[in-house]
Write a structure and sequence with these properties.
six-stranded parallel β-sheet, six-stranded mixed β-sheet, single chain, Rossmann fold, 282 residues, 2 domains, alpha/beta
Length: 282
């Protein structure tokens, strides 16, 4: 990689960002596509969102990915917002325009692609989502886009979940231990909390063994460790569980195309996947 005066600057804004794998993915894409671009991580504290957006624009930065705690806070400082991102109420990608940054949400597209890749059909089905935090907006949008008829949200704070999603009659909010009120068996579950993320790997958002008798397909959006305790419990009951590595890759691929106009091909995707595995699991 050669950095010079013509290098396109891309980045991630969030707090914390020290653990991020986004530079690994995007720099691999840039090299594979032969694009003169470099991607870096920028630690931006909560409350400094406006300064970061305006400063990035003044410095000529072409685009940002946005992670916690800025996915919602960044919206007032944008020059435009994609309709899907506006509906979701969260942004994870900023693309430079003449007047400022336009916001997009590629998280929900990444989740959708991973669910499809796994072959998990949820059309006209009741499904379970664990969590109502920063990732939940995109997760819920993806589930409904794929045809879920009803989503049961299990969350530690009933009030928080109802405030965010309670107005949707397709959603029912329950406490974490309220899974017994969900009808049916063999359900799909999307785990979108950070519980079980390395290094705190000995916890699961729900540890009651009866819960895992109710689901037989699951995705945990965590990708480090490769197998979370949640995933292990699903598999112990005979279900199939996948981590969030492909969600991470797919949302990055879509962001990269928005940033550069170039869509990485299968070879670039494989190179990025290999780089991620080497960085994360070896």
């Amino acid at each position: 990689m050669t950095i010079n005066g013509k290098t396109t600057i891309l980045g991630l804004m969030g707090d914390p960002v020290e653990h991020t794998l986004s530079p690994v993915i995007h720099n691999t894409f840039a090299e594979a596509c032969g694009i003169n671009a470099v991607y870096e991580a920028f630690n931006v504290k909560k409350g400094d969102t406006e300064n970061a957006v305006k400063g990035g624009f003044s410095l000529g930065i072409q685009g940002f990915n946005v992670t916690v705690p800025h996915k919602e806070d960044v919206i007032p400082f944008l020059s435009g917002i994609d309709p899907a991102a506006e509906k979701i109420g969260a942004v994870n990608t900023l693309v430079r325009t003449e007047s400022g940054y336009k916001g997009y949400n590629t998280d929900y597209l990444g989740i959708m692609r991973q669910i499809r890749k796994c072959g998990f059909d949820i059309m006209d089905q009741n499904v379970i989502m664990i969590g109502a935090g920063g990732a939940a907006n995109a997760c819920l949008a993806a589930l409904f886009e794929l045809g879920a008829s009803k989503v049961y949200i299990l969350n530690r704070s009933i009030e928080k979940a109802k405030e965010k999603f309670g107005s949707d009659n397709r959603v029912e909010v329950l406490p974490l231990d309220g899974f017994g009120n969900i009808p049916g068996e063999g359900l799909f579950c999307l785990q979108c909390t950070s519980v079980g993320l390395s290094p705190d790997t000995d916890r699961a958002p729900i540890e009651d063994e009866d819960f895992y008798k109710k689901i037989n397909r699951a995705i945990d959006i965590i990708y480090n460790p490769a197998e979370t305790l949640f995933m292990k419990k699903v598999r112990e009951k005979g279900g199939r569980a996948e981590n969030g590595m492909y969600m991470l890759l797919y949302q990055a691929l879509i962001s990269f195309k928005l940033f550069t106009g170039h869509e990485p091909g299968e070879e670039a995707l494989k190179l990025a996947e290999r780089a991620l595995y080497e960085k994360t699991y070896t």
